[in-house]
Amino acid sequence: MTPATSSSDAFVFFGATGDLAYKKIFPALQALLRNGELDMPIIGIARSGWTLEQFRARARDSLEHAGPVDEEACARLCRQLHYISGDYADDTTYARLRSVLRDARRPLHYLAIPPSLFPTVVQGLAASGCARDARVVVEKPFGRDLASARALNRVLHGAFDESAIFRIDHYLGKEAVQNLLYFRFANTFLEPVWNRDYVQSVQITMAEDFGVQGRGGFYEEAGAIRDVVQNHLLQVTALLAMDAPVGHDAASLQAEKLRLFRGMRPLRAQDVVRGQFEGYRDEHGVADDSNVETFAALRLHIDTWRWAGVPFYIRTGKCLPVTATEILVDLKVPPLAIFDTIEPPQSNTFRFRLSPEVVISASARVKRPGTAMLGQSVELVARRESADQQSPYERLLGDAMRGDATLFTSDASVEAAWAVVDPVLDLPEPVASYRRGSWGPEGAAALVSDGEGWHDPAPGPEDAGAAPPPSAH
Length: 473
Ligand code: BG6
Known about the structure:
The chain is of the alpha/beta class and 473 residues long. The chain has 13 helices and 15 strands. 32% of the residues lie in helices and 20% in strands.
């Protein structure tokens, strides 16, 4: 077996002429090359029947699309590129891959292909010997429910050891998401209040002001819960709510995350409000009577000693008023109104804005100048940055090549996350329609029974010099 720490020496990606490769993978490869982390053959595989020259042109096109091209890195990338055109079900495709891999001992195979093709490719890699001592990166969605995720894990385990499987969730590669974990466990002041005694509720909103962007066919098979809740938003919830890992290694972190996922109570229909934006059914690839949700609001309970009784509200949707992802942790109000009974006690909050820019802040109450003991909320900002310095794909692919699984999802965690959403996938009740540019169907408001309702993230990017954006208080 290859030791977990030895670096990969060839990068193979399936789906090389696809959308993901164009938008994310080539730019990440250019960045890795620039950092000296990709001194190895880069082999693209696809069914498109292109020539190597066409493939190189596509790579250049992708880099131009992503931003200013680093001519030197682009030229190196093109020199290191190989292209195999072939059917994924055909043995000769893998035989050709074997010969292009030549002396490579620890290839990394990245499956940037539709999930229905995962089993075919994994079996092809195993039968041809290309899986030996190799690693595999698997794109989301990892299955479409608990049963299919289990089946996919079985297929992968038939060819790869769990330590060689890297289930990618690009949210875990975001700087702001890593900072969530860092901020929680590198500061003493947070831990004493981070529990049911002090936290009233937690809200996580991932809002997008655009629709399905031509991905109607894909979206019909997914819907918001499969597309972003089961993975991105439950992962964020896990990092926000888990206990501290007991060691420095990836396994310790995975173990605590898994414990947290297992504490999440499976959702019931009454914990979920599903919506669909007006006009979704006119999108290309969408059924005229589609009941797929483009909006979901959920009330999640985590049955652990730390969180029993604290609701976690999660909301996401397409065609909402803003594009922003934000977490608001609302603390309980002080027990008595000491200063002035005109002003009821108000709570403090912690705010983690994950995108479009990164903000970590807390709200505090201070006295307004004057004779009256009246207060106002101020925002204490710990971090405010315009955006991620490094793309999540650059970070995660680099980690996978080094064999570092810290920011990837384990077999047990992915299944535990599916178990949470499984009961509310494909609910038969009709989705509620909502206006484009609104905060979803009206029923979503009723889900939040405490405090002041949903906290709507401000449009971004927030101006660093400006006054704090409006909060729920
Ligand atoms: C993807 C979903 O996984 O994440 C998309 O398939 C969604 O529907 C996207 O728009 C959001 O990612 P980000 O990084 O732009 O917040």
